[in-house]
Amino acid sequence: MNVTTREDMARGAADRFFVQYGPKFGVYEFGDSRKAYDALIALGDNPSVSAVEEVCKGWTMLTCNECRRYVDAVVQVGEVPDYESDTASICQSCAHRARTLIDAVAASDTGDPGHAYTARVIHGLEKKVMAVEVTTRIRFE
Ligand SMILES: [Zn+2]
């Protein structure tokens, strides 16, 4: 589990760009990838988000896998991020909601397997933000 920010994405942009387009650079729809890579390298080891975005639009963007919003930071959970890894990136708001859900289940655990589910539904109805989760659960029952 680790935190990734847009600043982290800016610092890693040149390396990620090389993995995707190097070492045989070419000309693509966005332009000459060699020139873009050289421009990223010229920004130094600690480039700003805006400087990287000027060279490669979207290369510092982070999306929450739960709410699908663009955010400035995510917590990555699951496998170490890699091509086709089982990694989820969630924003602060969604991480808080996840914590609230699991805390409600833990607080209501009586040892009865059905009790935890009931508590989750009750909690969901009290908090409208959880309504989608509750609706989905009821549909599958
Ligand atoms: Zn989110």
Walk me through this protein's architecture.
There is one protein chain. By secondary structure, the chain is of the alpha+beta class. The protein folds into two domains: 89 residues, no CATH class; 48 residues. The chain is 52% helix and 16% strand. It is built from six helices and seven strands; from the N terminus they run βαββααββββααα. The protein has a three-stranded antiparallel sheet. Strands 2-3 form a two-stranded antiparallel sheet. Strands 4-5 form a two-stranded antiparallel sheet. Helix 1 runs parallel beside helix 3 and helix 5 packs across helix 6. The chain is elongated and about 60 Å long. The protein starts with a strand and ends with a helix. The structure holds zinc ion.
Estimated radius of gyration = 21 Å
Order of helices and strands: EHEEHHEEEEHHH
Number of strands: 7
As laid out across the biggest beta sheet, the strand order is: 1-6-7
Helix content: 40-55%
Bound molecules: zinc ion
Share of residues in strands = 15-25%
How many helices in DSSP terms?
Answer: 6
The SS-based structural class is alpha+beta
Oligomer: single chain
* Average pLDDT taken over every residue: 83
